[in-house]
Specification:
- The chain has about 325 residues and is of the alpha/beta class.
- It has nine helices and 17 strands.
- Strands 1, 2, 3, 4, 5, 6, 7, 8, 9, 13, 16 and 17 form a twelve-stranded mixed beta sheet that branches. The chain has a five-stranded mixed beta sheet with strand order 10-11-12-15-14.
- The relative contact order is 0.13.
C-alpha cells in the first residue's frame, strides 16, 4: 500500500488535496535531501478532511523549488482516498491516526504500512517529527506531546506556548515516533482558517532550520502544559442533540466555546431528557470509568463535578460518533 520515493512527484505542488488519490495512487512517503542529512519527518492527511498540513507543505516546498532545503525532509501523505471525498476516513478503513505502532487494533495492511513508515524514519535517523492536524471545535492552536521531555517541550513550544501531554488514545503518529525522535502533534484550528496553514508552514520551516533541540528545561513563562486525563464519548445507543430536538442528551449549542477554559465545579454542559439517566463513557489513561469523578446530574442538568478544562469538544456529530465528544485536561505547568 505504501509508495516510497526520493523524487518529488510531478504535479504535487499544484493539485488540491482531493486530487492526491489520482496523482499518487495511495499513501506516499517522500524523502527530499537537504543541507543537514537527518530528516525532519512531517505527516499530513492522516485524517483525510484535515488539509491544513498538506497545503502548508505544498506552500513551503514551492518556496524551496530552486533552493536547497536547510535539512532533509521526509513527507508522509496519508489517507488520500478519504481526502478525495473530504472525509476523516472511509467506512471501509480504520482511523489512520489510531493504527500506528503501539495501537490496540488488530494487525492489518494499514498497520503494517505505518510500521514501514516508522522503520524507514528510524533507519534515516529522523531529527524530529511533526504530525499536522485540524479540529472541528473552537480551539486555540496548540501542540501535543506524549513524553514530558525537555527536547519535546522545546519542539512543541516553538509552535505554541499551549502544550498538551497525553498517552491516550493509542496508535497515534506522535506516540509511535516518540520512540524514534522528539515528536509533536500540532493542532491548527479548522481547515478553512488560512492562518492555520500559514502557522503550520512557518513552523515547519523554522524546524528545518534548527541545528539541534536543547536539553535544558523550557522557561516556565514560555509554556503552559496540560495533561489530558480523560476521553469523553457518547455511547452509540444514546441519542443526543445541540438543541431542543428529541434525544436522551441535550448539549449546549456552543459547548465548543468552553474548550481550553478552566471551568469551576457546577458548570452546566447540557441537560437530560426527563426520565433518562446519564450515559457517558468517560475513560482515564488506564481505561478506567471515571464518569462520576468529572460529571454529575442536578435537576436533570449535566454539570461538572469538579474543576476541569475541556479540549476539542465539537459540534460535529460525525466526529462524535467516529471518535469522541472531546477530552478533559488538568494543568501541569505552571503550577
Amino acid at each position: 500500500m505504501l509508495n516510497e520515493t526520493d523524487i518529488l512527484p510531478d504535479g504535487l505542488l499544484e493539485v488540491p488535496a482531493e486530487a492526491l488519490a489520482e496523482l499518487l495512487g495511495g499513501p506516499t512517503l517522500i524523502h527530499l535531501p537537504g543541507r543537514r542529512p537527518e530528516p525532519l519527518f512531517v505527516s499530513v492527511l492522516t485524517h483525510g478532511n484535515e488539509t491544513t498540513g498538506f497545503y502548508a507543505v505544498q506552500s513551503l516546498l514551492q518556496k524551496y523549488l530552486d533552493r536547497e532545503l536547510p535539512r532533509a525532509l521526509s513527507l508522509f501523505i496519508g489517507n488520500v482516498d478519504a481526502a478525495r471525498l473530504g472525509q476523516r476516513f472511509l467506512d471501509s478503513q480504520p482511523d489512520y491516526n489510531r493504527i500506528w505502532p503501539g495501537t490496540g487494533h488488530a494487525e492489518s495492511e494499514e498497520t503494517r504500512m505505518l510500521q514501514r513508515v516508522v522503520d524507514s524514519m528510524h533507519t534515516r535517523r529522523a531529527f524530529a517529527s511533526i504530525d499536522v492536524h485540524n479540529n472541528t471545535g473552537i480551539n486555540p492552536h496548540y501542540a501535543c506531546i506524549n513524553r514530558v521531555d525537555n527536547q519535546f517541550l522545546h519542539l512543541a513550544s516553538l509552535f505554541s506556548r499551549t502544550v498538551v501531554y497525553f498517552i491516550r488514545p493509542l496508535g497515534v503518529q506522535s506516540m509511535a515516533m516518540s520512540h524514534v525522535c522528539p515528536a509533536v502533534t500540532i493542532e491548527c484550528g479548522k481547515p478553512s482558517h488560512e492562518y492555520g496553514m500559514a502557522h503550520a508552514r512557518n513552523y515547519i520551516d523554522a524546524c528545518l532550520h534548527l541545528q539541534a533541540l536543547p536539553d535544558h528545561p523550557v522557561a516556565s513563562h514560555d509554556v503552559e502544559l496540560f495533561h489530558t486525563v480523560a476521553t469523553v464519548k457518547i455511547p452509540e445507543q444514546v441519542s443526543f442533540s445541540f438543541d431542543d430536538q428529541a434525544g436522551d442528551l441535550h448539549l449546549l449549542s456552543n459547548i465548543d466555546h468552553l474548550n481550553f477554559r478552566e471551568l469551576p465545579s457546577g458548570t452546566q454542559l447540557g441537560w437530560l431528557q426527563d426520565g433518562t439517566t446519564l450515559q457517558l463513557d468517560v475513560r482515564d489513561d488506564n481505561d478506567q470509568d471515571v464518569r462520576d469523578r468529572y460529571f454529575a446530574v442536578t435537576d436533570n442538568r449535566l454539570v461538572t463535578a469538579r474543576p476541569l478544562m475541556p479540549s476539542m469538544f465539537t459540534l460535529d456529530k460525525d466526529i462524535i460518533r467516529q471518535d469522541c465528544l472531546g477530552y478533559l485536561m488538568e494543568r501541569l505547568l505552571p503550577k
